[in-house]
Amino acid sequence: MPSPSISESLHRLMHAYKSRLRQLVQDRQLGLPITHIRALKGVCSNPQCTAQSIALRMQRDKAQITRVLNELIRDDLIEKRDNPADRRSQLLLPTAKGREIMGQLRNIERQAAAAMTKGLSRDEVDEFIRLATVMAENLDGGPTPE
């Protein structure tokens, strides 16, 4: 039997990882879709976060991100404040409830990572991280050679 291609392996890994995350989020009854989780993570990790920075980070249309952010505001997970550096934009900050949910999400990610790396040494995990980082940077760097 031929070995799987890198594309097949990456697809299978991403699908399995996302499925595990979704299941753990569902088990904890957080009720957040993956897009909302990614946006909340962006807000929590960047003290100078704006809607534009989330759209760029997630590589999504600003209108789509605005809808997600409005839902996070409605659910009292984030709030907007005036941006003293740029009056045309507003800073996004997590609320106490948002920080609590983010703590739960970090635990969920640790559980999924532990399951995913079971049986691997620290060196193997570090090498995977290094290789995945290089591959992502290669793809982010522009057009692929033919």
UniProtKB/TrEMBL annotation:
Transmembrane ranges, per UniProt, are none
Give UniProt keywords alphabetically.
Answer: DNA-binding, Transcription, Transcription regulation
The record's listing under SUPFAM superfamilies reads:
Winged helix' DNA-binding domain
Q: Locate the HTH marR-type domain: which residues? A: 3-137
Concerning SMART domains, the annotation shows: HTH_MARR
Tell me where on the tree of life, at the top rank, the source sits. Bacteria
Entry-linked PROSITE patterns: HTH_MARR_1, HTH_MARR_2
- Per its record, how is this protein called by name? MarR family winged helix-turn-helix transcriptional regulator
Species name for this entry?
Microbulbifer taiwanensis
